[in-house]
UniProtKB/TrEMBL annotation:
A GO biological-process term: protein N-linked glycosylation
Keyword check for Phosphoprotein: no
The organism's taxonomic lineage, starting at the top: Eukaryota, Viridiplantae, Streptophyta, Embryophyta, Tracheophyta
Protein name: Dolichyl-diphosphooligosaccharide--protein glycosyltransferase subunit DAD1
The organism of origin for this protein: Brassica napus
Gene behind this protein: BnaA08g06950D
Pfam families in alphabetical order: DAD
Amino acid sequence: MYNKTIVCVYAQDLLCSLHSAYLATPTNLKIHHYLIFLRSFYFLEHVSYMALVGSFSFNSFLFGVLSCTGTAFLAICLWIQVNKENKKFKDLAPKRAFADFVLSNLVFHLVIMNFFDRCPSPILNVVFMSCKNVV
């Protein structure tokens, strides 16, 4: 059996070191962490809704899950590029990394909307359907 006081000391040391490392993290990286947390939370929200309600709107479920997963992945890529401690991307400007993030998000979501042939927003759905009729 483990001694409870030793485990508590180790846990307290771990929490203190995590807190001090978080306080030393720059604000822009904290924003990236928050974005990744939100996308992960939305992913869990979609999965739990699907588990509780059922598979009525499976296309919407796939659209939401793929959107959350892809955006979180692209946010992690942005975080890696913007992080000052990463030596591979030290010559890459943060504005360039953010522009890559925005462009890749735009292309990613347009591909998802084209794949599912509908949009989550009714207004965008009308716009895309009217564009398909013209072409």
